[in-house]
Amino acid sequence: LQSSIMIRGNDVAIIIGGTKTIFNSVTQENEEEMTHHLLALRSYNYPEALEEVISIIVDKACEQPRLCEVYARLCAKQVDDELSNDNTSRFAKALVQRSKRSLVRTQEQREFGRIEREKKSDIDAEKDEQIKKDKQTELLKMQYKVAKTRFDDANYISHLFLHGLIPVAMILNYSMNLLASVTDNPEKSIGGYPADDISIERAVSMFETIGKSIDEENLRIEAATAAALTAQTPPKQIKMQFPLDRTFEVLGEATAIVGGKLSARIKRLIDLRANGWVPKEGVDYSNDDVDEARSKSADLDSNIAALALEKASLAIEKASLAIVKASMATENASLVAEKASIATISTEKAVLEKGDVRKAVADMQTAMEVMRKAMAALEVRSKALQESVNSD
């Protein structure tokens, strides 16, 4: 059993590593070859690896938005391969679950504008320069995260939808969340907050990709329903029509609450649909927003790096001050040691001087003793001389 678990664990590692290699290497030119390698992995046979595999694919789609269409085709072929051997697709279900998480993230991003304003106010009120720079770095990281995912999920989910891998109900729910700043509180949105513009722009990006397909599907549903009514044979299943007319009405309302560039882009999209999705001659429908988002992300990267460098410079300056203080402390210690040395010399000198006094006193005492002895001898000789005189 343990051996079997080890073998399966090795297989999972091979599948994850192989998926990374394939999606790091795939291009429009080698798509067919990479598709063959992807199908050979049969990752759908390893449920424990699927979540990681899907995350690798979606993350890569976020890094390379211009290859979203290629990545979506690879996923579609993977699902077709699985369905050829089974009635359901675990791979497709995992894709849907991952897309649902993107929807939750969109709801969180709707709060970004409010949070951003609060943080900016907090930064302006901060007095401590170091804390202020830390807060600025934190805000820049938040802005970077939002900018990086600005179009990613919308683009990739749109291409998955075109291949029938994302249900229309999820697209409807997704678009409702993206446009909630227009539909929920339009009177409060005049002027547009950053989070509103981000969400609305993602919706525009999505309908630039799937709008034509939705319109065509709605026409097919209408035709099938009309044919069934004419034949008086109700259809077995009535498909859901996407409310694209209402969606474009909301987009039209959004032109009053967003920036000029986004407003012009929305108007071009509305005009394109009104013209049957046929581009008008002389109108530039190209979209450089992905490159612009990358540029903004790069700018944010530069700002974060600059702040980090400034923080490092402050840290170096603090370290230099600490070294100077330590040097001064060492110098003070040297002065104290020198004073102590001088005091020691003075003490030794005093001791030596004190020793000389004792020697002088001893010499004096010796001299006085010699003098006493001399006086005593003199006195003896004086007595002897006196006695000699008296006897004469």
UniProtKB/TrEMBL annotation:
GO-annotated molecular function: mRNA binding; translation initiation factor activity
MIF4G domain segment(s): 21-217
InterPro entries, per database record: ARM-type_fold (IPR016024), MIF4G-like_typ-3 (IPR003890)
Any Pfam family matching the protein: MIF4G
Listed GO CC annotations: eukaryotic translation initiation factor 4F complex
PANTHER family xrefs: EUKARYOTIC TRANSLATION INITIATION FACTOR 4 GAMMA (PTHR23253), EUKARYOTIC TRANSLATION INITIATION FACTOR 4G1, ISOFORM B-RELATED (PTHR23253:SF78)
Record's protein name: MIF4G domain-containing protein
